[in-house]
Amino acid sequence: MWGIILILSLWGLFAVYSSTGALAYQKQGGMAEVYLFQQFAFLFVGFFIMLITHAVHYKYYLKFSKIILFSSYLLLVLTLLFGSSYNDAARWLKIPFIGITFQTSDIAKVALILFVARELAIRQDSIKDFRKGFMPIIIHVGITCLLIAPANLSTALVLFSTCMVIMFIGRVSVKHIFYIGAPTVVLLGIGIVIALNTPDKYLEDLGRVLTWKHRIENFNQPSTNADDNFQNDHAKIAIANGGLTGQGPGGSTERNYLPQAYADFIFAIITEEYGLMGAIFMMFLYLLFMYRAFRIVFRSPKAFGALLAVGLSFALVIQAILNMAIAVNLVPNTGLTLPLVSKGGTSIIITSFAFGLIMSVSRYVETEEPNEPENKLSENKIVAE
Questions:
Q1: What phi and psi values does residue 280 have, to the nearest 5 degrees?
Q2: Residues 20-47, mean pLDDT to the nearest whole number
Q3: DSSP class of residue 133?
Q4: Do 39 and 16 touch, CB atoms closer than 8 A?
Q5: How far apart are CA 247 and CA 249, in angstroms?
Q6: What is the pLDDT of residue 255?
């Protein structure tokens, strides 16, 4: 798992350096090295945080899960009220006097998964009870997702789906999950149908609803206006240019035309430079990480560790797969980045913390595992006597 993280980080460093050329000419006078060192600095800090996080036994994070969750509520509300906007989305909160912005939904995502894993672990005796086992968890899932949704619907939907998966693995009754999941899907579908059949002038004052509508419309039936499909068209060109083996590192031409080439569409640039083989290998790395995380689940002696590992890994890998799907136009644009690969700042820090939590479960499961056969042997001996 450490090897996978290292390869993704280094690959992301090269990809960001290659894809920030146009941005460097706009803002740094052509010095793309600025973004290279910036990305390296965040990865270095993130790796340091990962090391510290993985060194602490995962059981200690139980104590702070509620504090982190309620703190994330405050941050999400502040973001909705005073957040910095980009493309009509108030997703970032600026730290006073320092000027650094961070995406509060990243913190809320980790906080909620920590909380859900904790609650499932301590409520196993009553987990089949709707009022005592299910409601105390789903209320906080709903609050968090509703606070994230106005500015970042895709993240809210991924987080909601992740929590449903964790609850299913945590032995929550399937019918209870259905009671919440089915109405959510139906309401979302009704909302999409209403939005698609409502004139744009009535949606202009409803936040990002108009943006979501246009993305779905362009995905279902591409607009004849070239500007509406500019990103998707140039992402397809980049992928087509890549062929089987790619143009080589730094050989991308679409990096100069594709908006957000270093963030949302970095997978298209990677495919152009490393080809289909490189794209498949990157997907394989994320899936391999997911597989290793599930191996941890099967070996974890504690419910909290297993649920925490599967929840965080599922959220990170699903985000990665959706980012790749956007680049190849399998789903509408959502604004999700590629974990550890896309250009980022505080998002890399939060992602590194999440990876550190997974590695903590892995480390202490492996430390405790050798003792288990001895314990079982002793128990069998006592029974035999």
A1: -65, -40
A2: 82
A3: I
A4: yes
A5: 7
A6: 86
Interatomic CA distance for residues 295 and 276, integer angstroms? 28
pLDDT digit string, tens, across residues 300-339:
767 788 888 888 999 999 999 999 998 888 888 777 888 9
Q: N- to C-terminal Cα distance for the chain? A: 43
Please state the separation of Cα 304 from the chain's center in Å.
20
Q: Give the pLDDT confidence score for residue 74 in this predicted structure.
A: 92
| pLDDT at site 180 | 87
Residue 233's Cα: distance from chain center in Å? 25
Give the 3-state DSSP-derived string for 232-288, with helices as H, strands as E and coil as C.
HHHHHHHHHHHCCCCCCCCCCCHHHCCCCCCCCCHHHHHHHHHHHHHHHHHHHHHHH
For 242-263, b where at least 16 C-beta lie within 10 A, e where not — what string?
beeebbeeeebebbeebebbbb
Which SS3 state, helix, strand or coil, does residue 321 take? helix
CB 44 within 8 A of CB 59: no
User: Each residue of 125-158: pLDDT tens digit?
Assistant: 888 888 888 899 999 999 999 988 887 888 888 8
| Structure tokens belonging to residue 64 | 């702070």
C-beta separation of 125 from 103 below 8 A = no
Beta-sheet pairing, 89-94 with 101-103: antiparallel
Residues 296 and 365 sit within 8 Å (Cβ to Cβ): yes
Encoded amino acid at 361, one letter: V
- Residue with more model confidence, 94 or 373: 94
Using the predicted structure, report yes or no on whether residue 382 has a pLDDT greater than 70. Answer: no
Question: CA torsion sign, 260 to 262 to 264 to 268?
Answer: positive
Cross-strand bridge partners of residue 103: 92
Token pair recorded at residue 68: 């982190």
Q: Which two tokens stand for residue 375?
A: 């314990």
Do 312 and 113 touch, CB atoms closer than 8 A?
yes
DSSP 91: E
Say which residues have a Cβ less than 8 Å from residue 207's Cβ, sequence separation at least 6.
88, 150, 151
The separation between CA 7 and the C-alpha centre of its own chain, rounded to angstroms, equals 18
